[in-house]
Amino acid sequence: MPNQAGARGKTDRRDARQLARLARSGARPVVSVPPVHEEARRDLPRARADAISARKDAPCRLKAFVLHHDLRYPGRAPGGPAPLRWLADVVWPPPPPPIVFPEDVRAGQAPTARLPRLAHALHEPVPAWRLSPVVEALQALRGVPCTGAVTLRAARGARPRCAPPRALRPCLGLPPSEDSSGAPRRQGARTNAGHTQARRVLVAGAGASR
């Protein structure tokens, strides 16, 4: 909420008056509080994104642990089951490495086991969802699977917020940043504002459609 310079008094009456002015002038967008079942659908893509992030971080931690003990895999591919089989035959010094290594391996396998369960939880209630036709229509686009369609629809929320098609791009952080003065236009990378999971799914779908 914009505040006037030097204004340090904050009360409910002043905040309500300021919100009324902003609403009357149209300076604030209309938002809607999602119901409980819609918020639960948003929690599933967030949990899936956390599992994907954890699956990416676990091999890095395991590799750092191995390099800390000056062990280097002689093969070419650093990832996959072959390095794990090689590490299983390594004779470690006294504790704690024999204890830490299995824990790091299990930490990398746990997110992989979570992803199918979360994907099943995302797909199962779609036929009974009132917006299932929208999900099916989104899957008609190249590179958009069922998981991506459900994530996009759950992230969009109420229709008034992104009613025009052009209003959906700022909600996902797709417009480029800009620092222009005068006639020349200087544009930079994407703003990356808005819903992170929906933007990642959309960008991944665009890359898969190629």
Low-confidence stretches: none
Tell me the helix content.
55-70%
Average pLDDT score:
80
Question: Please, how many helices?
Answer: 8
Largest sheet: 2 strands, antiparallel
What Rg is obtained from the alpha carbons, in whole angstroms?
A: 24 Å
Would you count the extended β strands for me? 2
* Order of the strands making up the biggest sheet: 1-2
* Domains, number: 2
Structure classification: mainly alpha
Order of SSEs, N→C? HHHHHHHEEH
User: Alpha-carbon distance between the termini?
Assistant: 42 Å
Q: In percent terms, what proportion of residues is strand?
A: under 5%
| Overall morphology | extended
Task: Describe this structure in a few short sentences.
The protein is built from eight helices and two strands, in the order H-H-H-H-H-H-H-E-E-H. By secondary structure, the protein is mostly helical.
How would you portray this structure in words?
It contains eight helices and two strands, in the order αααααααββα. The protein has 210 residues and is mainly alpha-helical. The chain has two domains: 90 residues, no CATH class; 85 residues, no CATH class. The chain has a two-stranded antiparallel ribbon with strand order 1-2. The longest helix has 33 residues.
